[in-house]
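[recover] target loaded
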């Protein structure tokens, strides 16, 4: 493609409607997946957990690796002797198809309905409903700290 034509194409992207942007994104998705690597959400969670592992049952940090299950590292607590993985005790524990989570979250961030998100990810409507509530529960538990100390407000009047 010629540079001038490509530049005009890039400039026109900002004028597209959200539906047109979604259509363009769907058309580019197979091409982008072949050229870029998105990190697996499940893998990212496991890496974060492995930095500071602790037992979700008794909160002990005395744990040891205890094999793998379904490709996930399992751990065993030396205090309570229970086994767990990085997702145990979280709202997304026992959810299937972790390779589809990122695509589903992308759909949620673009305000996709349950049916549209289910169709795009290749899951059932029931699964889409369950995932939506589980992912929203994760967001609910991940709120920022309360404001403290001195907070100043100013008056603003709108006509």
């Amino acid at each position: 493609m010629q540079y001038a034509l490509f530049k005009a194409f890039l400039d026109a992207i900002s004028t597209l409607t959200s539906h047109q942007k979604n259509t363009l994104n769907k058309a580019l998705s197979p091409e982008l997946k072949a050229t870029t690597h998105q990190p697996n959400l499940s893998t990212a969670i496991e890496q974060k957990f492995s930095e500071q592992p602790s037992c979700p049952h008794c909160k002990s940090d005395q744990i040891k690796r205890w094999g793998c299950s379904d490709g996930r590292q399992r751990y065993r607590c030396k205090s309570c002797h229970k086994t767990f993985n990085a997702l145990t005790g979280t709202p997304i524990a026992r959810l299937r198809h972790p390779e589809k989570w990122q695509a589903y979250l992308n759909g949620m961030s673009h305000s996709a309905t349950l049916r549209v998100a289910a169709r795009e990810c290749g899951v059932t409507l029931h699964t889409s409903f369950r995932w939506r509530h589980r992912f929203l529960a994760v967001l609910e538990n991940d709120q920022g700290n309360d404001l403290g100390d001195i907070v100043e407000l100013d008056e603003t009047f709108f006509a």
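[recover] notes: The CA atoms of residues 54 and 61 lie 4 Å apart.
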